[in-house]
Amino acid sequence: MKHKVVAGIRIKNEEWIIDRTLDSLKRFCDTVVIYDDQSTDNTEKICRSYDFVDWRSGPPRDPYAWHAGQQATDLFKFVKDHDPDYILMLDADEIPTPSVIEFFNSINEDINLWRTRMINLEDDSHYRIDSYRTRFGANINWDPFSENAWRKYTLMKYNKDFQYTYEPLKVGLGSFGPFHPAPNNVPSPHMQTEDFYILHYGRTSPRYRSGKKQQFLAKNDEITGVGTYEARLAHHLACSGLGDDTPPTLVKCKDEWFWK
Fold first, then answer.
1. Segments of the chain with pLDDT less than 50
2. Distance separating alpha carbons of residues 102 and 112, to the nearest angstrom
3. Cβ atoms within 10 A of the Cβ of 12, count?
4. What's the Cα-to-Cα distance from 30 to each of 14, 25, 48, 103, 126, rounded to whole Å?
């Protein structure tokens, strides 16, 4: 690679996927900084087995007291210590497609921030394209290639002379700001790319499939005053698309989206 690429990942209890993510990132990243949020499984042991991982432990906190903006700030500080040319910001269950290597080989160096298409996987080889409205009034669209599909600002060119910030610091779940997960003030120009995608495996995780993630989100909503636990759990379960009332329409992923 002609550019030094450093990835930053916030993580908690991701032993089910992190080796797969790191095996992919080692093909083109010089370093991956892992910022751990008090994992209790084998996440740390797995990550430390990779020579190119810089493991950092975050401070103890209440699991329902989210300080997303501060965590993002802390991770960014550790990433920039590696003097990168480019910073790739991912979750542990997000894996770029192999075409990212060719993208870097011919990258437009005038662009400061890249927005990438996110593809929610339903299993190891399929994604959904159906859409519906839940009984609670939420509009759900799983088609990653629709007009308003999910995208994130996952890649930025780093300028050591620029003062990046996540302020005002977001408290709670969700995005950090307008360019999530990048800092809030990355200067233009920005651009969207279709030269590579990010595959999101979150829906295939045991925690998601068992309903434990939805239970966590419902409890968080209750604590923050969004609604009762029972009501919010019903909402999150309906939005997850796992019920018999929302049978999925699946499309097979292209073989070239996966690392060999």
1. none
2. 18
3. 15
4. 21, 9, 15, 16, 30
Residue pLDDT, tens place only, 175-232: 788 999 999 999 999 999 999 999 999 999 999 999 999 999 999 999 989 999 999 9
Tell me what pLDDT residue 67 has.
82
φ/ψ of residue 6, rounded to 5:
-120, 130
Predicted confidence at residue 88, as pLDDT, reads 98
111 vs 156: CA distance, rounded Å:
8
Q: How far apart are alpha carbons 71 and 38 in whole angstroms?
A: 12
Instruction: Please say whether the beta carbons of 56 and 34 come within 8 A.
Output: yes
Rounded CA-CA distance 86/158 in Å is 5
Query: What is the rounded distance in angstroms from the CA atom of residue 15 to the CA atom of residue 46?
Result: 7
Reference 87, options 10, 151, 4; nearest CA is 4
Which one-letter amino acid corresponds to residue 18? I
Range of the domain at 18: 5-257
Instruction: Say if residues 39 and 9 touch (Cβ distance below 8 Å).
Output: no
Cβ pair 53, 78 in contact under 8 A: no
Measured from the Cβ of residue 105, the count of other Cβ atoms closer than 10 Å reads 11
The pLDDT, as a whole number, for residue 65 is 78
Q: How many CA atoms lie within 13 A of 164 on its CB side?
A: 26
> 101 phi and psi, to 5 degrees?
-65, -50
Q: Encode 160-184: b = buried (16+ Cβ within 10 Å), e = exposed.
A: eeeebebeebbeeeeebbebbbbbb
What pLDDT was estimated at residue 175?
A: 79
Which tokens is 181 given? 């997960």
Count how many residues are written for the chain.
Answer: 260
Q: Which of 204, 21, 195, 193 is nearest to 127 (CA)?
A: 204
Number of domains in the chain: 1
